[in-house]
Amino acid sequence: MRGTKRFRLARPVAAALGAVLLVGGLAACGNSDTGGAAADDGKITLGFSQVGAESGWRTANTTSVKEAAAAADIELKFDDAQQKQENQIKAIRNFIQQKVDVIAFSPVVESGWDTVLKEAKDADIPVILTDRAVDSADKTLYKTFLGSDFVKEGRLSGEWLLEQTKSATGPVNIVELQGTTGSAPANDRKKGFAEAIAANPNLSIVASQSGDFTRAGGKQVMEQFLKANPKIDVLFAHNDDMGLGALEAITAAGKVPGKDIIIITIDAVRDGMQALADGKFNFIAECSPLLGPQLMDLAKKVHAGETVPPRIETEETTFTQEQAKEALPNRKY
Ligand code: AHR
């Protein structure tokens, strides 16, 4: 851990300071098991600020990170930001104060990170972006990004729809449930999907609103869409959870999901795959949450001062209903 590389405080002083940092840190953060100052046991200490627990994807991602840290013998200081950027900034500052060896975080939104990233850089603590990117112009503020190509996920979703609707002679009305406003997956999936469907002028997005990546949000916004739009042919939801919430609204409105309304989602978590296999969803573009092992590998490398690629993308696929039936028995999350 970093303290050993610099200087040692006399024990009573260190203990008192540790207690102050512990109380201050815990009060500052949303929901954390970050503990006090980084342990002096020779292990790498990784401070990880998670977005929250908004979706099945996120839960699987948290499990992957925790299990991989234990397997790699890395001490993990984990903080759940409850989908609030200010909590993530506090958590990162807390990690800097604790002198962790490496900081990783999944930024809830893309903008507004330069100041805190500069603080980490000034403290000589390498930062890894995981899952979601930031829009900082200064790429030296972090070592690498590990995650998905969200634009591609949106594009694959749009291309599948293009193929399905190529013989349409009239308008195909699409409603879109966006992820968290300002987040990389919401911005990028929207972009990729819009670019793909632009190839057929019959296809148009008639309503688009954020459901914040949650089931409750998906249900509530879909209810509004159904009230305001007499003809909805397609739902494009930026994740499975919003699609699953929307199913309730669609059924309550007397429509048959997967038939009256084509449903396309992203993630491919178990519940989403079950809905696809059951014929309630029509297509899913995969987004893998299993980033833990690669993240631990990167943490070790950046801690050792090794150069790592600036961007590492996860390998992903897509699923139709038939493919979901085949894949479900072996689905890990
Ligand atoms: O950043 C990844 C996205 O965040 C997942 O698609 C979504 O389910 C999650 O909340």
Descriptive account of the structure:
By secondary structure, this protein is an alpha/beta fold. The chain has helices at 11-28, 56-71, 85-97, 114-122, 150-164, 184-197, 215-228, 240-252, 270-277, 292-303, 321-327; strands at 31-33, 45-50, 75-80, 102-105, 127-131, 144-147, 172-178, 203-210, 234-237, 262-267, 283-286, 311-313, 318-319. The strands form 2 sheets. The chain has a 7-stranded mixed β-sheet with strand order 1-3-2-4-5-6-12, sandwiched between helices. A 6-stranded mixed β-sheet has the order 8-7-9-10-11-13, with helices on both faces. α2 packs across α10, α5 packs parallel to α6 and α7 (215-228) crosses α8 (240-252). It is elongated, with a radius of gyration of 22 Å. 49% of the residues are buried. Alpha-L-arabinofuranose (AHR) is lined by residues 54-55, 57-58, 131-132, 185, 213, 239, 241, 266-267, 287.
Helix share bin: 40-55%
Q: What ligand molecules are bound, each kind once?
A: alpha-L-arabinofuranose
**Biggest sheet layout:** 7 strands, mixed
Q: Could you give the distance between the termini?
A: 33 Å
H-E order: HEEHEHEHEEHEHEHEHEHEHEEH
Low-confidence stretches: 2-30
Structural class: alpha/beta
| Spatial shape | elongated
Describe this protein with a few key phrases:
elongated; binds alpha-L-arabinofuranose; disordered N terminus; 11 helices
How is the topology of this model organized?
Layout: H1 11-28, E1 31-33, E2 45-50, H2 56-71, E3 75-80, H3 85-97, E4 102-105, H4 114-122, E5 127-131, E6 144-147, H5 150-164, E7 172-178, H6 184-197, E8 203-210, H7 215-228, E9 234-237, H8 240-252, E10 262-267, H9 270-277, E11 283-286, H10 292-303, E12 311-313, E13 318-319, H11 321-327
Parallel strand pairs: 2-3, 2-4, 4-5, 5-6, 6-12, 7-8, 7-9, 9-10, 10-11
Antiparallel strand pairs: 1-3, 11-13
